[in-house]
Amino acid sequence: MLIDSRSMESEDEDSLLGESEEEYSELSDSELQEAFAKGLLKPGMNVLVDEPKKSVNNVEGLKQCLAELRKDLPWVERLDLTNPPAEDVLSKAEGKAPNPTNGDVNAENDFQREMFFYRQAQATVLEALPLLNKHGIFTKRPDDYFAEMAKSDQQMQKIRKKLISKQMIMEKSEKAKKLREQRKFGKKVQVEVIQKRQKEKKAMMTAVKKYQKGMTDKLDFLEGDQKAGKDSAQGPKKVANKKGPNAKRKYKDQKFGFGGKKSGKKWNTKESFNDVSGFRAKVAHAKGGGKGGNKGKGGKQNKRPGKSVRKKMKSRS
Amino acid sequence: MSAFKRKRGGKSNDKKAKKVKFVAGGEETREQAEQEKKNEVTIPPPVSMGRWTNKERVLIFSSRGINFRTRHLMQDLRTMMPHSKADTKMDRKDKLFVVNEVCEIKNCNKCLFFEAKKKQDLYMWISNSPHGPSAKFLVQNIHTLAELKMTGNCLKGSRPLLSFDPKFDKEPHYALLKELFTQTFATPHYHPKSQPFVDHVYTFSIADDRIWFRNYQIIEEDASLVEIGPRFVLNLIKVFRGSFGGSTLFENPKFKSPNMHRREIRLAAAARVREKQMVKELQKMKRTEAKEDVTTDVTADVFLTPAEDKPVHIQTEAPEPKVVKKNKHKAFKRQRMARR
User: Fold this and answer.
1) Do B163 and A81 touch (CB under 8 A)?
2) How many CA atoms lie within 13 A of A48 on its CB side?
3) Percentages helix, strand, coil for chain B, rounded to the nearest 5?
4) Where do the segments described as Disordered lie (chain A) (predicted)?
5) Residue ranges per domain, chain A?
6) Predicted-complex ipTM score
């Protein structure tokens, strides 16, 4: 922190500091206390500097000099213009209010500063072009006018190459990013597809089991996606079937399968035992007549030769 | 055969059909331009057609001890200004007013003199010799034509447009500087080395109490610009009445010499180091101080409650011996507990 030496009002300080003005000596404790009381101190070391010298500003002399220097040249010779910067199209487009009060451009903000200079040049150009045309000075260079340029062709080639390489680098990085995104996305999609397939398989298996166990006698799970039409037909029936298995039972069935003894369906039940619909009296009471009658005539129709004969046949062949 | 001396001023109208020689990308003389006059209407007449009246010449040179960037900047300025002349490096031993003599020898009436100090700081003098005012600047942030980020290009020797910040009109010293810049940087009309087109613009702006110089190429008629370079920042130090001398007309109060600047940084760093050291020393002292033994605890008698004095009883007879009971035949503990 820089304390101006003249701002210390204590008498002691004046005499002390008068000698040590040129030296960057530290203030003594009492002086520090005084400064603290006045609120001049800030955290950090305090360095003493002397007051800035009164700078020369000879306004009259400057004006006189200017009058002497001035040459009355027509504008064509000088081609100079003084103008504030042109309209800031960008900030207007973004919706920021243009600040006319802020005449001082912030020199630290690089972009703002350069845009300020650019716009100033633009304003000059816009104003000057009609004037130049009036005076008959050309601004447009025809394409076949070859003349020496300020920068050599080699230099321009280098510049072009640099620009192209920058573009390429950007493109490459963009491509790499996109590829990475795609891969991530592709992986996600793949996982989803596999999961979907597994789900479908599970559903299919449960549907098949259902049919096997006789819970549903419809084979519409084979059709797969054509459930929409069938659903409406099954509407009223579903209501009746609601009282069948419990909702909880259904959920458990869906999740775990049907539980209980899986293959007891091949055993006799009371109903199947008492079911005599498959009884054919003729077949049952035929006493082997058909087969016995044939014995005299077509003995060897279906008769299998004996073991020894078979063996002989085998050995022969 | 004596060479026919071409008179300037628009008399030689008899240049008609000249054989066209195509040199790819190389220099074409102005006769070529006239040749094409028949095809295109927009080609201007050669520069020699007009009378060159504004005899402005600028001498650009430097002192010894400049570095590569300054040298390139000087070369760039010479390229951009066809009305400039070069000279050899000046010895530092000579006083500054020697520059005036050099100017006179070269028949120049303006001068741009670059002075390098300590191989770090670059000062620029701009002056109107022999009588006129002069100014000294500190040059910073130099970027030359050769930088690859400046993509624009212009004709060598084409006349520039000059663009000034309105702040130049507000202060008298800035007004003087503006006049000086205008006369120095503007290429005279019909200068023999100039090109008849106007395709770039110099910008002088004021920000942060410094003068910023930029050079843009005009690409389209709708004022789209690309920077050509060079670019630099001028920090005004003083304006003098005479050329490289004379009384001071203006002194910039905000100017800080680079030496001072570096010194301040160093001192601040030194002050910080000293502060740290002081703090460390204080701590050390505190640690090694002879610590006082605390013998009397001040807080010891906080909880003292003085008791009542008991009367002193002195026993004169010995106490009776105790009756010793042996083997009391106590029952087992368990049974005792059970009984209870």
Assistant:
1) yes
2) 21
3) 25, 25, 45
4) 1-29, 225-317
5) 80-140, 152-241
6) 0.72
